[in-house]
Design goal:
The complex is a heterodimer of chains A (295) and B (235). Chain A is mainly alpha-helical and 295 residues long. Helix content of chain A is 73%, strand content 4%. The termini of chain A are far apart. In chain B, α3 (94-101) packs parallel to α6. In chain B, the strands form 2 sheets. Chain B has a 6-stranded mixed β-sheet, sandwiched between helices. Chain B has a domain at 3-87 and 155-232: P-loop containing nucleotide triphosphate hydrolases (Rossmann fold). The chains are: A mainly alpha (295), B alpha/beta (235).
């Protein structure tokens, strides 16, 4: 194979695995957004808290998958608690109010995390041994395969949940119209916390993947993750789950290719450049649907 | 007595929307609330269905005080509200909309049979089964909204302005359907600006004006009442 092509494919696979991790974070963020149209600024700080917990559990004698699962469940509980204590009391207020509440919740979580784990960067354990898999001329890292597989599994799990279960179908209705859903007998105040729970759950899984991929964790990665999730959701179309998922993958691929071909400085800016360009021509995002505004 | 309210007062935001509403519905009756836009009709329905909490008064359902219960519990108790402006789930299919109406039920087989039953009453719903509900016309959406509300097998169906925004010929279709539902023995509480239609289909009616009940009586008598004729029936 031509060395240029090998290099490109390698970068593409890197991009897909980074993108897969963004996608997992973004899907939770997008769900929470679409149910209450609220920017969840605490999303990143919630999942990084859970990712720290996963780190503690990974150091114990638990099998890694169980450690991550437990941390993800706990991340969901944090998200649910934030919804119950910080967002619900201001749900009917002007939409700026929940946004500020979210910032407040983010700061509280970040401060607590800082007290427990400190402000410095910590080496994050890898969850699988680093192997190089040889495919002809081509090498793939086991980490890459893992993150693509986890992203695939998450989107599959999510699809089964939302499309085929009764509660998932009800969630789709709550997303469309909260009041009418409650007139159908749908327990709205059970569904909304559940959506937050899922946001935290998927967030922690994405967070653990990212931290173990880069071998690092710090409290700063919370806000960083919120920005990535936001960018992914904007690219794909706010409020569209699969849009957010594909947006995450696209963001990862764009960043990796930009770093490889345009220089490392472009890595973090390329996503925003793409957002500006896409919003200019498709305000609803790449995969989003136009929303009719009621007057 | 199926439903009774005592001295219900409900605020809508800072505005006192209804004051001291005393009304009742007997089993098998069709009761109408007529009044102009903003008179408080929707507020009354929302107070009964639990979307709004009254500041004063009680709602009694089959002898039990249900004031302030959340909407999902009220649906389970047997009251189903078909909201103003239809509010079908536009992104879901017609069939999924009907399924959601049966959210409180667990009897899958019977749910399917009920859907088939309503598809017979409203043939358009069968034709458009797998289409997105948002693509239906206004009248079709109203039929879907009514069928969806019936899917919970309510003892009391509350219809909020079923004629709103529909062409006169479509309004007739909708009222034909309401007549059919009435014949099946469902108790109906109907709220309407279209006083003529509402009085024609109902047994009893209340006239509500600026949040208070101004008049009540048998519908056929209200149709002959001069004040009602003047204010609501166009002379």
């Amino acid at each position: 194979m031509h060395p240029e092509l090998v290099y490109f494919l390698k970068q593409l696979i890197n991009g897909l695995s980074v993108g897969g991790m963004y996608a997992v974070i973004a899907i939770g963020y997008s769900m929470v957004y679409s149910i209450l149209y609220m920017m969840n600024f605490a999303h990143g700080d919630i999942y990084i808290f859970g990712t720290f917990i996963a780190m503690a559990l990974l150091a114990s004698s638990l099998p890694p998958w169980l450690a991550i699962l437990l941390a993800a469940v706990f991340g969901g509980v944090i998200a649910m608690t934030v919804e119950r204590t910080v967002y619900r009391p201001v749900r009917h207020a002007n939409r700026i109010v929940p946004m500020i509440s979210a910032l407040g919740a983010a700061l509280v979580l970040r401060t607590v995390a800082q007290v427990i784990w400190g402000p410095q960067q910590i080496v994050y354990p890898s969850i699988i041994p680093e192997n190089v898999i040889q495919l002809g001329d081509f090498q793939i890292l086991s980490q890459n395969i893992l993150s693509i597989a986890v992203a695939g599994a998450c989107v599959l799990l999510f699809t089964i949940l939302i499309k085929f279960t009764k509660i998932g179908k009800a969630t789709q209705c709550v997303i469309q119209d909260i009041n009418t859903s409650s007139l159908m007998g749908i327990p709205v105040n059970t569904i909304i916390p559940m959506v937050y729970w899922l946001g935290g759950f998927f967030g922690v899984i994405g967070g653990v993947m990212i931290s173990s991929y880069y071998s690092v964790i710090s409290i700063e990665m919370g806000l960083w993750g919120t920005c990535k999730a936001w960018a992914a959701a904007q690219l794909g179309g706010v409020g569209s789950f699969y849009g957010a998922f594909l947006g995450g993958i696209l963001l990862g691929v764009l960043e990796t290719l930009a770093a490889a071909y345009l220089g490392a400085g472009f890595k973090d800016s390329i996503g925003y450049i793409a957002i500006v360009l896409i919003l200019l021509f498709r305000p609803q995002g790449l995969f989003g649907k136009k929303k009719a505004v009621k007057v | 007595m199926l439903l009774k309210t005592d001295n219900i007062c409900t605020n809508y935001g800072a505005v006192e929307a209804i004051r001291n509403i005393n009304m009742y519905v007997e089993e098998g009756e069709v009761v109408a609330f007529i009044g102009h836009n903003g008179a408080g009709k929707t507020t009354l329905l929302k107070t009964i269905s639990g979307l709004l909490r009254p500041v004063k008064g009680t709602v009694t359902w089959m002898g039990e005080n249900i004031t302030g219960r959340p909407p999902e519990k009220i649906v389970r108790a047997g009251i189903s509200q078909c909201p103003e402006g239809r509010q079908v789930f536009a992104e879901s299919t017609v069939y999924q909309n009907m399924e959601m109406g049966a959210y409180t039920r667990k009897d899958k087989q019977a749910i399917r049979e009920d859907i088939e039953k309503y598809e017979e009453i409203f043939p358009i719903l069968k034709e458009r089964r797998s289409q997105k509900a948002g693509l239906l016309s206004g009248g079709e959406q109203q039929m879907l909204a009514i069928a969806r509300s019936l899917m919970s097998r309510p003892k009391l169906l509350m219809l909020d302005e079923p004629s709103l925004g529909l062409a006169p010929v479509v309004v007739n279709d909708v009222y034909d359907v309401i007549q059919k539902i009435k014949q099946q023995g469902v108790t109906i509480l109907l709220v309407e600006q279209n006083a003529m239609k509402a009085l024609e289909v109902s047994d009893r009616a209340y006239v509500i004006s600026t949040g208070e009940i101004a008049l009540e009586g048998k519908s056929e008598e209200l149709l002959q009442n001069d004040a009602v004729k003047k204010a609501y029936l166009g002379g």
